[in-house]
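Usage

Read records sequentially. Each one opens with the input sequence:
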Amino acid sequence: MLHILALTGLTTFPLPILGRTWTVDDTPGPGVDFATLQAAFDAAAPNDVILVQPGAYAGGVLAKGLRVVGQGDPVVSGLLRIEGLPPRALAVVSGLRGATLTSSLMVRVADSPGTVVLEDVTLGGLAVLDAADVRLRGIEPALARARLEITRARVEAVECTFRGEDGPNQWCGTPADPTGLPGARLFQGGILHAARSSFFGGMGGNSGCPDLGLVEPGGDGGGGISVWGTTGAPCELLVSGVATDLLTGGLGGWSSLYGQASAGHGIDLYSCSARISGVTVASTYVYPSPPSTIATPALPDPTMRLLEVPTAGTNLTFRVVAPPGANARMSLGALPVVVPIGGVEEDVLVARAQSFELGTVPPSGVQGFNFALPAAWPAGTTFFAQATLTYPGGELRRTHSIPVVVR
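and closes with the structure output:
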C-alpha cells in the first residue's frame, strides 16, 4: 500500500522576491515585450521572469539569474549559452522544446559559480564546463540524440535521458571515426549524480567498400556513461534508480570482412570510482582495477520523483522510494546549496526552510508526500525538495534534489 502524507493550508516558506515579468512572442502584439530571447535577456534584471510564448526562437547568451519559462511548448534552436553566473545567483530555464525538422537546441553552461536549473527541456546536446551547481530534471533528447559532457563541473541529472550520437558510416574510404559516442562523458574532475535517469551509447558506424577492396572494421558502440578521471583530477559518479533505469552501450557497427564491432559498455570507468544503486547496467569496464572500483550498496539508495507539472494552485505529489522500514523526512526550501557531509554519499542540496516528517516507509517501498502549491505563486517561482532517510540500523542517506519550477 502507498502511504501518502497530504499537507494543505500550511504556512509556506520564504521565497526570493521575483522582479518584473516580461513576455516574449515571435508574433508582436499587445502585451508582448520582445520578439527574441536575446532581447529579453539583455533587458531583464536579475530575478526577473521571462515568459516565452509558443513560437520559434533562436538561442542566445544568458548571463544573469533569470527565470525563463516556456508556456505552450515554444521551440528553440541553435545555441543557448548560460555563462558567468555569480555566486548565489539562480538561473532557470524551463519548458522549452529544442527541435525542428533540421536542427535542435544545444546548451552550453560555463564559468558559473551560481546555480543553473534546466527543467523539462528537449535538446540536442549539453556541455557543462567549470560550473559549480547544475541541476537537470526531465531532459529528453531532441531528434533522437542528446549527449552530456561534464568538465570540472558538478551536475545532477534527475528523470533524464541522454543518448550519444551514432558513429558515421565509412563507405569507400571516407575519413571518419566510426565509433559511437557515449550518452554522458566526464573529464578532469567532473561530477555526475544521476537519479531515475537512463544513458545510452550511440551505435558504431558500418564500414566497407567491396568494389574497391577497401574494407575497414566497423565502429565500436559508445558507452552509456564514460568517466575519465586522473590522479590529480578524480571524477565522481553516483547513480541511483530502479531496474527500469538503464545504462546501456550502443551496438557495434558492421564490416563485410571483420563482422560486427564491439558493443559499448553501460559504464566505462578510467582511474575513478563510482557508486551504482538499483539501476540496470548492461556491462562495465573498469581500468585500472584497483584503484578504480564500482560500489553497490546492499540496500539501494533512496530516490524521489515528482509526478505533476507544477502550476499554481495545484497539488504536487512526491514519491520517495526507499527500503521498507526506513524513516523519511522531507525538506523544502528556496535556496540551493551543495554541502558535503562526512559518511553520507549524497550532499545536502537544499537549505531547509520547512521540514516534514513522513514516517516509516511501508512494505511497498514507496512513501508519498502531497504539497499544495499556493495559488498566489507566480510562474517562475522556484524551490527545491530533498528527502532524508534513516535506514533500519541508523544509517543516514539522502535522495537527490528535485527543482520545482512553477509554470
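Summary fields computed downstream for this record:
- Residues 303-405 form a domain with the Immunoglobulin-like fold (CATH 2.60.40.10).
- The longest helix spans residues 37-43.
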